[in-house]
Amino acid sequence: MTEFNDFFKSAFTVDNAIFGFDEGDLKILLIKRGEAPYKGKWALPGYFVYPSEELDSAAKRVLEELTGLRNVFLEQVETFGTVNRHPFGRVITVAYFSLIKISDYNLQPASIAQKAQWHSISKVNDLAFDHLEILNACFQRLKWLVRTRPVGFELLPPQFTLTALQHLYEAILETDLDKRNFRKKILSMNLLIDLEQTQEGVAHRPARLYEFDRNKYHQFCDEGLNFELKESKKKEAKRAAAHRKKMLQAAV
Amino acid sequence: MTEFNDFFKSAFTVDNAIFGFDEGDLKILLIKRGEAPYKGKWALPGYFVYPSEELDSAAKRVLEELTGLRNVFLEQVETFGTVNRHPFGRVITVAYFSLIKISDYNLQPASIAQKAQWHSISKVNDLAFDHLEILNACFQRLKWLVRTRPVGFELLPPQFTLTALQHLYEAILETDLDKRNFRKKILSMNLLIDLEQTQEGVAHRPARLYEFDRNKYHQFCDEGLNFELKESKKKEAKRAAAHRKKMLQAAV
DNA sequence: CTAAAGGTGTGTCGTTTTTACACTATATCC
DNA sequence: GGATATAGTGTAAAAACGACACACCTTTAG
Lengths: 252, 252
Fold this sequence. Notes:
Two copies of one chain form a homodimer. By secondary structure, chain A is an alpha+beta fold. Chain A contains six helices and ten strands, in the order ββββαβββαβααββαα. In chain A, strands 1, 2, 3, 4, 5, 6 and 7 form a seven-stranded mixed sheet that branches. In chain A, strand 1 (11-22) and strand 2 (25-32) form a beta hairpin. The interface between A and B is large, with 44 and 43 residues. Chain A binds a DNA duplex through residues 161-163, 178-181, 183-185, 198, 202-208, 230, 232-234.
């Protein structure tokens, strides 16, 4: 085992791309670094993983220390380990991304959080370490995820209008969507509860409010993860028939 | 910096799920461990990442040492870091998966490779470390990838029949597919070159041979990675019009 | 030389999904 | 009560999907 000692000189961190949505704009929570390396630069919130800490727990810890939030969407994305990415030594980082409702978010009083700030994702162009690359990977993942699972709800307040939801999708996908087709599709998923209430205090016709139906979402996940390319019914039937035939012959 | 010393006591490895396809069966290349820990158990090929080695390079190295192959499909999947997953200390592992043509594969003479063997993926049920979990994650990734990008070709010999391709898809997706619909779909992608040759030495009507068109594949990737949920053409036109108008006004 | 075996290769039609597209409704503000 | 601002709605054409059956070649065995 001594032959392996040289390998046990590395460290690893988690970095968390925390996405939020506000005023039609997709945002990312960044921290201004107060210490070397990269002092004064904006960075993704992250920290070393403690020796007896799970990776997921570390990501949760970073998120909670900063935002006070638990039980939010959090998923591993990719691991970055370029040899010289960290000046202290060999440090590989496991990137996570999370989706939070900015309305729930309250800056924690901890000193580390005092330098935290939301940034429009489109305006971020320089970050500490390789965090710009990491952010891009996380953003790509979000783009993919939003087409695959109805995660948009994680970013909106509990009650929202269809227009708000559409704007969110447009911000993530960086495209425009057709209003009628969007509504048709979203409503056909049956994941929304019509609250039969409307907005108040807007200077125009108020929109209906909807809520996300978590129960149906879980059904959706359980059934729907085998999407696309359906099984051939005919072959299935044939196979069953062949099987029955064999059984019959065996019986004779 | 001394405050961080405790973090620099970890190691990391890469583990590689190497998939192959043979005789209608999806296979995985495993190594029988000759040393502790888990001596005698089958495991995914992997090794520690050297201090000045990139993660991707380490995965390539592991693959090449074992199979002699370079330039094959290789992609990072997920990182596993449960605290006690390795008896030597804190070791997190970055899982990769690769797709190779078994026909190209020749066992390297290196001692490490002498215990390597292909296993039907459906029969693997016990592996060293957390490798079963890792294998499952990689298999899921392969399932997803095969629906998304035409990676099936990576696993077949350069020339293949449509039936062979279909069997490959069926093995990966663990389902049956309709022959006519499958052919329609695959051929409509225009990624296959009809070699205008047929099989030889088979005891039935020989099938046509096809080749994968790498040029078209690259086009496909460049254009096609923005699949689904198309942009509204109308709004796009509107935006362009608004932009032109602004430019005009600015010019005046 | 004929027949059986065994896999190859092909077309159509009904259904569902997707896309394009424009006007009326309802609230506030002045 | 009219201007403004957003909400909300339907349809038709095109494309994609899914189900489904039989004739065609080639080899091999009798």
